[in-house]
């Protein structure tokens, strides 16, 4: 046991965020911490790392000192520099990790250059700093934000080898499925632990909800039966009281007989009422409604079959070629994903489709009848209008439908009257998506639409896009979303844009198999992984005494890694 949390409580003003959190973290744990935006996930992380204090509760550690590596969700370059200079040897592990993640020449970067890094590069850099510090516990808050396929794959591999404990706060369902062994869900200030990865958690939650619904319906049925019994007993009691007054005079003890009869009826009624009250006090709560998005088609499909068609298109900035000689097409009604590493030209291609940039070579046809809605990663700022003002001139039925969609996406009704410029990025993204989907558009172009959305909102968005009747062009690193929504892909590879039929996972599996047939490429990748692992083991060995139990195991692991490297080198030289 590394850390044991008991009855952790935290409030901000009148808002109770954490209300009695119990959580045990053991060496080797892989815990996914999930919950809606604002549920308290990052607050708990700040408490675990000592950056914030709980209002109540205790945190007990099995050691006097534990090394904790912490990746915050929103870091800046200055914080990266502080972390790396104070805790990490720039010439060792960090250089290898950043190089593999695709951030090269890091030691030559100056402070002002760090500030110009992309979001994905900043995340990779912060992760490299955490990794290279060799912590006992790594707490990663949204580690895959803005990260490309290469970075996510490497992080998954590193987590599989990392000997310490990891707590991952993430809305990336694919990443959670491939890294964690238990899910800790924060809901209404409390925490519930579910064994397994994210998919197992969702299945368990669905089964739990269905079981709760069946029990709730059974209890409601029993309560209705008791209500009817009470009404019947009341009718019999009233009759018994009338008879005690009217029929008692004609026989000896007759009035007393009917009074006793009426009293028994009254006692039966009280007994049933007490039973009903107890049942209502102890009853299972009605499960929260599972919001479903129902689309009525707001537009009639117009124009020919092809919405977009590219012939031999090329785009470069100076000597930097993004893509060249690329041809593809998108048919009306297709849901097409756009996938590729950071900086490959995905957003540039979108801007060309929108007419905001010019090609260097080739022809790009975009149907003149297509009504395009574009959702960018960069949303407008400072808007003074509220959602209700924005849609006030829409038909009433469409106003209701878009509000139902936004509620399904996780936006509460009280936010509909707030000026858009005062809403959070996540809330603003939900509104932008809702307006685009329910406007009279037949081509949606979405650039990283899941940024700032929690898991539950992502699931609602996924369902909305599946039901959307028009054409979708989806730029995303969210592989789970791409697999669920898109059955065609535009893939950036080798400075070309290629159309791929089928899901992204199928394409990546085929590419992985192809890479295995290239010995030189596979050998270089394996050698880099082995060297990273060897460096890590040596770092841990340096902190241990030779007579400690952990030393022998690490020493054996290092010898095995040496053997594997030797075999790899012999194989590549033969």
Which bin fits the share of residues in helices?
40-55%
Widest sheet, order of strands: 5-6-7-3-8-9
> Looking at the structure, what is the overall shape?
globular
Provide the residue-averaged pLDDT. Answer: 79
Q: How many domain modules?
A: 4
Total strands: 18
Could you explain the architecture of this structure?
46% of the residues lie in helices and 21% in strands. By secondary structure, it is of the alpha/beta class. The protein folds into four domains: 3-196, 3-Layer(aba) Sandwich (Rossmann fold); 206-282; 306-507, Rossmann fold (3-Layer(aba) Sandwich), CATH 3.40.50.300; 518-573. A six-stranded mixed sheet has the order 5-6-7-3-8-9, with helices on both faces. Helix 3 runs antiparallel to helix 5 (119-132) and helix 3 runs antiparallel to helix 17 (519-541). The two termini are 47 Å apart. The relative contact order is 0.09.
Features:
single chain; 574 residues; alpha/beta; Rossmann fold; 4 domains; six-stranded mixed β-sheet; 18 helices; 46% helix
What's the layout of helices and strands?
Elements: E1 3-12, E2 15-25, E3 30-34, H1 41-48, E4 56-61, E5 68-71, H2 77-87, H3 93-101, H4 111-114, H5 119-132, E6 137-141, H6 149-161, E7 165-169, H7 173-177, E8 182-187, E9 190-195, H8 198-246, H9 254-282, E10 306-317, E11 320-331, E12 335-339, H10 346-353, E13 361-366, E14 372-375, H11 387-390, H12 396-408, H13 425-438, E15 443-447, H14 455-467, E16 471-475, H15 479-485, E17 488-493, E18 496-501, H16 504-516, H17 519-541, H18 549-573
Helix pairs in contact: 2-5, 3-5, 3-17, 8-9, 12-13, 17-18
């Amino acid at each position: 046991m590394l850390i044991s949390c008991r009855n952790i409580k935290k409030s901000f003003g009148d808002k109770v965020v954490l209300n009695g959190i119990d959580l045990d973290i053991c060496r080797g744990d892989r815990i996914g911490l999930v919950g809606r935006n604002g549920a308290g996930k990052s607050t708990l992380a700040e408490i675990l790392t000592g950056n914030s204090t709980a209002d109540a509760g205790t945190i007990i550690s099995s050691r006097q000192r534990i090394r904790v590596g912490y990746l915050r969700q929103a870091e800046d370059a200055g914080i990266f520099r502080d972390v790396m200079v104070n805790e990490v040897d720039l010439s060792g592990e960090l250089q290898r990790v950043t190089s593999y993640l695709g951030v090269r020449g890091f030691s030559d970067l100056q402070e002002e250059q760090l500030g110009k890094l992309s979001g994905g590069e900043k995340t990779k850099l912060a992760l490299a700093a955490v990794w290279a510090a060799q912590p006992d516990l790594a707490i990663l808050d949204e580690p895959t934000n803005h990260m490309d396929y290469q970075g996510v794959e490497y992080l998954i591999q590193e987590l599989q080898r990392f000997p310490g404990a990891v707590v991952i706060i993430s809305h990336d369902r694919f990443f959670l499925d491939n890294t964690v062994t238990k899910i800790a869900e924060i809901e209404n200030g409390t925490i519930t632990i579910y064994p397994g990865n994210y998919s197992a958690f969702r299945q368990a939650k669905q089964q739990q909800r269905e079981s709760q619904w069946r029990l709730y319906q059974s209890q409601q049925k029993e309560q209705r039966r008791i209500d009817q019994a009470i009404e019947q007993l009341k009718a019999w009691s009233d009759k018994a009281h009338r008879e005690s007054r009217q029929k008692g005079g004609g026989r000896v003890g007759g009035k007393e007989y009917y009074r006793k009869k009426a009293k028994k009826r009254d006692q039966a009624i009280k007994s049933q009422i007490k039973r009903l009250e107890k049942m209502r006090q102890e009853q299972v709560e009605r499960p929260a409604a599972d919001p479903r998005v129902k689309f009525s088609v707001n537009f009639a499909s117009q124009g020919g079959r092809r919405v977009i068609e590219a012939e031999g298109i090329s785009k470069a900035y100076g000597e930097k070629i993004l893509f060249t000689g690329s041809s593809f097409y998108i048919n009306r009604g297709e849901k097409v994903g756009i996938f590729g590493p950071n900086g490959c030209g995905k957003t540039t291609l979108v801007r060309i489709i929108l007419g905001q940039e010019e090609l260097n070579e080739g022809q790009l046809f975009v149907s003149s009848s297509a009504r395009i809605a574009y959702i960018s990663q960069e949303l407008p700022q400072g808007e003074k209008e509220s959602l209700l003002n924005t849609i006030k001139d829409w038909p009433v039925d469409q106003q209701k439908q878009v509000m139902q969609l936004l509620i399904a996406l996780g936006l509460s009704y009280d936010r509909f009257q707030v000026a858009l410029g005062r809403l959070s990025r996540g809330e603003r993204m939900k509104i932008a998506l809702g307006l685009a989907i329910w406007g009279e558009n037949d081509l949606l172009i979405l650039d990283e639409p899941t940024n700032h959305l929690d898991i539950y909102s992502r699931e609602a968005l996924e369902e909305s896009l599946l039901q959307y009747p028009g054409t979708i062009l989806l730029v995303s690193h969210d592989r789970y979303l791409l697999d669920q929504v898109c059955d065609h892909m535009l893939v950036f590879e080798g400075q070309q844009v290629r159309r791929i039929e089928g899901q992204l996972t199928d394409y990546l599996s085929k590419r992985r198999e192809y890479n295995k047939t290239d010995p030189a490429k596979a050998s270089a990748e394996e050698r880099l992984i082995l060297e990273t692992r060897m460096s890590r083991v040596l770092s841990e060995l340096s902190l241990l005494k030779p007579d400690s139990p952990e030393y022998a195991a690490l020493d054996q692991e290092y010898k095995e890694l040496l053997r594997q490297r030797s075999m790899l080198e012999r194989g590549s030289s033969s």
